[in-house]
Amino acid sequence: METPEPEAPDLDAPDLEQPVRVPWWRRPIWMTPQSWTSLAASIGFLCAVMVLALVPAPYVVWAPGGTVDTLGHDASGAPLVEVSGAETHPVSGQLDLTTVSVTRVDSGLGFAPAFVAWLRRGFDTLDRDLYYPPGTTAESSRQERAAMMSQSQLSARVAAARAAGLPVSPHPMIAGVVVGGPSDPALQPGDVVLSVAGQPVEDADTVLVALAAALTEGDLGDGDELDWQVRRDGEDLTVTTSVRAGDTVEDRLGVQLIDGFDTPLTVRYGIDEEIGGPSAGLVFSLAIYDVVTPGELLAGRHVAGTGTIDTDGRVGAIGGIQSKVVAAERAGATIFLVPADNCEDLAGLRTDLDLIRIATLDEAIDALTALHDDNHLHDGNHQEVPRC
């Protein structure tokens, strides 16, 4: 009986006794309820991180900025605060104005950076609409800060002259000039107005009333020219401007007038134009005073400070005081002049700086003079220097 030959094995048939390898992308996904919960939580966390990092927050951040030694010199060797018109004297030490770095009006800020800034020493967050009112642009912000800086420099010159015992006389003054306006560039901020259209003037109101009458009566109209006699950097000049359409006299002239003062001092500031605002007034006035008075006010010390100044020498509070203290620390200062109304804003800030409380320019001069002596002696009498 014949037996059939066994069939040859099919070498291509799968070995049913061996596991079949399935590519990972073809395998079925089996997830427990706990796995789905973990996945959803992870996705939610990633979305939250993206929102915190990318979605703009309604805040701006104040951070410690740089410092500038107002008794120092620029790259060409010229003093950063150059004074003429009175006898000058040698100075020593370093007198720093302090700055803060602020989120630009055209830059966004995520929630995460805002939160981190809120936690950091010397940083602060502020409501964006309070710092930059709606409608503020980068250019309008720059112009506003430049105008405040210009006004602080003018006030510092007058306050320093008064503190040094130099003559000061009131006169109307150009506080600002509209760029591209009918008075640009003939008039410049800081010009002392001596006469308008040949008529001597005593104050800003005199100028505005006289010009308003001339415009109303038709003696002066759109496109007409107007002669001004001004004193600029100690030199008397006659300049010509024009008149344009506008709602107010200042609009039609393209200038802002204030009651200013004339002094024998001429001050040239070599400060970076990117630095703006009014908060360097106190430091500017101290720098000018130190240059025009005998003796060395700082006596080689490294002093920093901040605060607005008016023409009577009153010191005003500023924003970002903690940021400025940290900036002064980083620059190596040992003494920091604090506006009296800012002292409470430094509660809780740990610093090795000697924080001196200042309400007037005279107080700042007295404090620095007193600190010259290790025992805080001034004019032979024991004087306790006020501190925050």
From TrEMBL:
<dbReference type="GO" id="GO:0005524">
    <property type="term" value="F:ATP binding"/>
</dbReference>
<keyword id="KW-0645">Protease</keyword>
<protein>
    <recommendedName>
        <fullName>endopeptidase La</fullName>
        <ecNumber>3.4.21.53</ecNumber>
    </recommendedName>
</protein>
<feature type="active site">
    <location>
        <position position="324"/>
    </location>
</feature>
<dbReference type="InterPro" id="IPR027065">
    <property type="entry name" value="Lon_Prtase"/>
</dbReference>
<keyword id="KW-0812">Transmembrane</keyword>
<dbReference type="InterPro" id="IPR014721">
    <property type="entry name" value="Ribsml_uS5_D2-typ_fold_subgr"/>
</dbReference>
<dbReference type="InterPro" id="IPR036034">
    <property type="entry name" value="PDZ_sf"/>
</dbReference>
<keyword id="KW-0720">Serine protease</keyword>
<feature type="active site">
    <location>
        <position position="279"/>
    </location>
</feature>
<comment type="similarity">
    <text>Belongs to the peptidase S16 family.</text>
</comment>
<dbReference type="GO" id="GO:0006508">
    <property type="term" value="P:proteolysis"/>
</dbReference>
<dbReference type="GO" id="GO:0004176">
    <property type="term" value="F:ATP-dependent peptidase activity"/>
</dbReference>
<feature type="domain" description="Lon proteolytic">
    <location>
        <begin position="273"/>
        <end position="371"/>
    </location>
</feature>
<dbReference type="GO" id="GO:0004252">
    <property type="term" value="F:serine-type endopeptidase activity"/>
</dbReference>
<feature type="transmembrane region" description="Helical">
    <location>
        <begin position="36"/>
        <end position="62"/>
    </location>
</feature>
<keyword id="KW-1133">Transmembrane helix</keyword>
<keyword id="KW-0378">Hydrolase</keyword>
<dbReference type="InterPro" id="IPR008269">
    <property type="entry name" value="Lon_proteolytic"/>
</dbReference>
<dbReference type="GO" id="GO:0030163">
    <property type="term" value="P:protein catabolic process"/>
</dbReference>
<dbReference type="Pfam" id="PF05362">
    <property type="entry name" value="Lon_C"/>
</dbReference>
<dbReference type="InterPro" id="IPR020568">
    <property type="entry name" value="Ribosomal_Su5_D2-typ_SF"/>
</dbReference>
<keyword id="KW-0472">Membrane</keyword>
